Structures are given as C-alpha cells and as structure tokens.
Amino acid sequence: MIPTEWKRVYGLFDPLKKLEGDSLRFFVARDRKQLDTIATEFRIALTPLHALMVGQRGTGKSSELRYLGRQLEADFLTVIIDVDELTDLFNVNHVEVLYVIGTSVFAAATVAGSALPESLLRDLYVSIQTLVRTNTEDKKFELPVKDVLTSIAAGVAAAATGGLLGAIIVSASQIFKDVKFNLGVSDQVVRKMEVKPQISEISRCINRIVEETEKASGRSLFVVVDGLDRVDAAQGRQIFAESQVLDQPACHLVYVIPAHLYYSPYLNQAKQIFGKVYPLANVKLHTKEGAPWPAGWAIMRAVVDQRLAAVPLKRDDVFDRASLDLLIEMSGGLMREFVRLVQNASLNALVAKAPRVAVVHAREAVDALQRDYMAGVTPALLDELFHVMEKGLPSGSETGNLALQNHYVLTQTNQEIWYEVHPVIASTVNAKWVERKP
User: Does residue 383 surpass a pLDDT of 90?
Assistant: First the structure.
C-alpha cells in the first residue's frame, strides 16, 4: 500500500478513541439479542430502571452503551457522563457522582434545546455546599456555578455551530472540557455526609432537574455514567455496595462498575440496591477446554472489515491471513487490546515498507505487548498467575483484584464464568510455573 493508505489504516485503529457520533458506524455487536433485550427493557419499564454494566476494562462497554443510546433515540434523551474525564477518579465518591449527574442533565437539557431556569442548578449547588460546609471545617466552601454556566453556554454555541443543537445524545465531557467536579472531601467525611438529611435535599434538587428536563424535552431520560470501572476495590464497594446514594435519581440510569466488584461477594449487596446487572463478556475465542469458538473470531474479523471499509480496503489488502489470526488470538478477546495490536502491527508494516501486514509485523506487535505486561509482573503477581493456572480461579486477594483489573487474568464465559492468564504472557508464565514445580 502507499503511505497515505497506511496512515488512514493506522488512524482507524486508535485504541483510546471511543466510538461515538459518526464513528459508531464501526460498532460491531457481539450479542445483538442482548442489546435488543436491554433496549426493550428500558422502553417498557414503568419506573426508573437503575442498572449496572460490568466487564473488564477495554472490553467495549463504552461503545456498547453509546450504541444502546442510538437504539433508544426515538424515545429518550441520552446523557453520556464520562466520570473519569470529569472528576479526580482516584478520589471520586458518590456525592461527587450525584453532583456531576445533576449538572450534566441540566446541561444536556440546554444542548437539546430545552433550556431550564438557572435557579434549578443553583438550588442543587446550594444543597451540596450546605452538605460540605456542615461536615467539614471549610465553612466558605463554594461550587463554581459561574464557570459551569459559562461552559454550558460555550457548549451550546459549539453545538449550534456544529449543527448539534437539539441533539438527543449528549456527551457531558464535550461540554465541560475545563471543569472538574471535585468536592475535595475524604471518604470518612463522605460516610458522614450520606446519613445527613442534606443528602435527601440534593436528591430532591436533582430530581427537579430530571423532571423539568423530561417535561421540556418531551422525552424520558437515559443517563449513562461511564468510567467508574477504573476505581479500586475499596472505592467500588463503598460507591455501589455500601451506599444507596446513587439509587436516588428518578430517571433511567446505567452505571459502569469495576469488574472486580462483579467477581466478588459484594455483588449481591449491590444487587439489593440496583435493579439490574448487565455483564459484557470479552469476545470468546475458545472454550474452557481450548476448542476454537468460530463466532468470536468472526466478530474480531468484522471489526477489521468495518473499519477498513472507510478507506476503502478489504481485509486481504492489508493483512496476511496468518498475521491477523495471530493478533486475534493474542488479544484474548479484549476489544481495545485487539485494536491496539492491529494499529501497532500496521505501523510495523509501514516502517518496513511492506505491502501488507505479515506475520513478522504482527509478531513484533505481540512481543512488544508481552514485554509491557511482563515488566509489571512482581513475585506476588506471579504467584497469583500460578494460582489461576492451577485452580482456574483468582485468589480473591488484593493482588488477584489487580490482576483482573489490569488484564493479567481474563474472564470468559460458557454457561459458567471461567478465568485464564492473558494469552500474550501465558506461555512465559507457564514456563516459569514448570520451573518452580518440584
């Protein structure tokens, strides 16, 4: 291929780019029936449905939920909230999540062409300020309402210029590019906050915004809170299993939660609070016994076909068959990992001035990924990987949670959930395991 075409191929496989807006045309559903079932459930629910979506990071949850919003656009105003972009994710708490939900819905109403009275947002901010001032020593704590209103006005102007004013799928992070929704309070303070009457006042203010948004737009609200799958184990338990705060908004909600919460006893606590749990599995490439799973391979090839059609190129124009098979196998069924491997293999072929991605270029990409993984393997993590190989289950320890969170251990499904060491390091870990055996 000529360099210009290689450049376009490289750009089409950006592992950090979420599929949204026009790029949703690249979306490939792994389970069309599951998506249709979820969409139908939200359409027919008579009361606000609050659900949790779970899957390992990089499995495609963000794209799946944005596509779901597209499916619901005839009936709903969808608000996408990327908490990881709008807060300090490593210190985020559930009161801050309420703060960003209320503000994002208010902003979405404006972008959708149904501007609400500013007093609704100011009332919400007064209720949050009162909560913080009551429970901390910062008696002058104040939220940046002027900055938020300025960002909303700029977002509306940008939407009008781009022809998106009146949109029915609104991304909060595109509006609040310069605002961070942080309260600066500790976990201990938050635990005190949520038993106070002021929490009820915050919920009341949010639900007034929800009610007025639905009334003004003539649509029900569907709110996606993405990004919380990256919080650590303690945060995940506190936010979703040990508190009922996030069950307060009176609209349809989906929260993306950490995988390690799903694969723990705390899931049952969370299920007592939230009505539904939607698991999104990695793309299964083989069974627990090791037999190939053709449907999974077909999904991965369809991802390549869908993106290359934009160039337009065919799969065989870009990849030798064996090279693409290697990239699929070594991805472990993680969508983001697969896209990253494809991009890096394409770069290797371009540097080599090759007409297509050959096995040697794919192998270079796989070897680089293996080095990245093995660089982070500590003795404790290696013991965890040995445990998974021997027992077929994570240990449930903090190290086990980290192994799941960082993809050293992958979860797969048949009729049951099962676990495997990431294939990109499996042979290396297995060799070390054999060395250690007496």
Answer: yes
Question: Of 204, 151, 193, which Cα lies nearest the Cα of 174?
Answer: 151
Q: Which is it for strands 276-279 and 50-54: parallel, antiparallel or unpaired?
A: parallel
DSSP 30-66: S-HHHHHHHHHHHHH-SS--EEEEE--TTSSHHHHHH
Q: Any idea where the domains of the chain sit in the sequence?
A: 31-279, 284-374, 376-436
Amino acid residing at 396: G
Share of the chain above pLDDT 70, in %: 95
Q: How far apart are CA 385 and CA 408, in angstroms?
A: 8
Residue 220: strand, helix, or coil: strand
Greatest mean pLDDT among 6-20, 134-148, 351-365 lies in 351-365
Q: 382 exposed, middle or buried (CB, 10 Å; 0-12, 13-18, 19+)?
A: middle
More confident position, 191 or 257: 257
Q: Which long-range contacts (CB under 8 A, 24 or more apart) does 211-218 make?
A: 211/250, 212/109, 212/116, 212/117, 212/120, 213/77, 213/105, 213/106, 213/108, 213/109, 213/114, 213/116, 214/77, 214/251, 216/109, 216/114, 216/115, 216/116, 217/77, 217/109, 217/112, 217/113, 217/114
For residues 291-320, average pLDDT: 95
Token pair of 402, please? Answer: 């980290």
For the segment 17-45, what is each residue's pLDDT rounded down to a tens digit? 888 888 999 999 988 888 999 999 999 99
Flag whether pLDDT at 195 surpasses 70. no
pTM of the model: 0.90
Is the pLDDT at 371 greater than 70, yes or no?
yes
Give how far the C-alpha of residue 59 lies from the chain's centroid of Cα atoms, to the nearest Å. Answer: 8
Q: Which of 395, 366, 379 is nearest to 432 (CA)?
A: 379
Nearest to 365 by CA among 330, 334, 335: 330
Burial grade of 415 (CB within 10 A; 0-12, 13-18, 19 or more): exposed
CATH number of the structural domain 284-374: 1.10.8.60
User: Can you tell me the distance from the alpha carbon of 48 to that of 332, in angstroms, rounded to the nearest whole number?
Assistant: 36
Supply the angle between the helices 335-351 and 3-12 in degrees, to the nearest 10. 160
419 with 393: CB under 8 angstroms?
A: yes
User: Which residues, other chains included, contact 284 with Cβ-Cβ below 8 Å and sequence gap of 6+?
Assistant: 293, 295, 296, 333, 412, 413, 414
